[in-house]
Amino acid sequence: MPARPREWKDVAMKTRSQPFTEDTLREAREKLLARDATLTERLEQVRADLRREPATGREKDEVLHAIEESARAEISRIEAALDRTEEGTLGLCEECGREIEASRFIAAPYATHCKDCARDG
User: Fold this and answer.
1) Contact status, residue 50 vs residue 64, Cβ threshold 8 Å
2) pLDDT tens digits for 17-49?
3) How many other C-beta atoms can be found within 10 angstroms of the C-beta atom of residue 106?
4) 86 lies in a domain?
5) Among candidate residues 56, 57, 8, 10, the one with its CA nearest the CA of residue 33
6) 105 within some domain
7) Number of domains, the chain
8) CA distances from 51 to 9, 65, 72 (A)
9) In this structure, how many other beta carbons lie within 10 angstroms of the beta carbon of residue 37?
10) 73 in a domain, yes or no?
11) I need a surface site. Which of 19, 39, 83, 111 has the fewest CB within 10 A?
């Protein structure tokens, strides 16, 4: 799993003191959008590198493809989280409907399951 961006620490402080307030959710949405923009830029750079230097070495190409796949997967999770923001379900477990624990939400604002359901599933 990719490292949590430093700016998500701001969400951590607010979430621990007041879980899932409107401000917290709005801030999480903003952080998700920022992370999405960063990953999209990274994907564009990787694709440009692959076009510019198509035969620079198999290992480098494999690394670039792995970075590309990882970024695409995280973007997909972010887009799904943004959809849940619009639906009003961001931070709610898709299995049981309870709020996702603050520590889990901080680590991955795109989490879809609470700790218990993630463990059981």
Assistant:
1) yes
2) 345 677 778 888 888 999 999 999 999 998 888
3) 21
4) yes
5) 8
6) no
7) 1
8) 36, 12, 18
9) 12
10) yes
11) 83
